[in-house]
Amino acid sequence: MKRELAPGTTAQFTVTVTEDMFPAFDGKVIHPVMSTVSMIYHMEKAGRYVLAPHLEEHEEGVGFAIDIKHVGPAVAGQQVTFRAVCVEVTDKRVVCEVTADTPRHRVGTGLFTQAVFNKEDMRRRVQELQEEVGGQN
Questions:
Q1: Distance between CA atoms of 13 and 82, rounded to whole angstroms?
Q2: Which of 26, 33, 88, 134 could lock onto 73 through a cystine, CB 3.0 to 4.6 A?
């Protein structure tokens, strides 16, 4: 990783809640609010925005761990700002504190950890697994 990635590095963006973000199982909407899955997706995206500009050409980052609390609702049409702040950097891991907030209240908070790998090692590992799984058909 490039040396300039350090605690305090931040990324944020805002999304508008839409109906396709509602929790639905078997085609039935459970609640007309942003789902936990959608919230976590955007939190992970914010963390990715912190890491990606600092990867070397031979590196890639992947989600490693997430510890999130969904603490409030966000309804259709409401703006939610997702923010990731780097709180720890090692040679192999980047930890971000992630938050989701509307102008009125907090929607979610937690930690998102990304692991950093050599791209070629990851490509080879995925290819080997794909060949193994393909042979099971």
A1: 6
A2: 33
Amino acid 2 reads K
The tens digit of pLDDT for each residue in 28-54 reads 999 999 999 999 999 999 999 999 999
Which distant-in-sequence residues (6+ apart) come within 8 Å of 29 by Cβ? Answer: 19, 22, 23
> Shortest CA distance to 54 belongs to which of 81, 93, 83?
93
Taking the whole predicted model, whether its pTM rises above 0.85 is answered as yes
- For the CA atoms of 63, 128, 91, 64, the dihedral, rounded to the nearest 10 degrees, stands at 20
Please compute, for residue 131, the number of CA atoms within 13 A of its CA located in the half-sphere on the CB side. Answer: 6
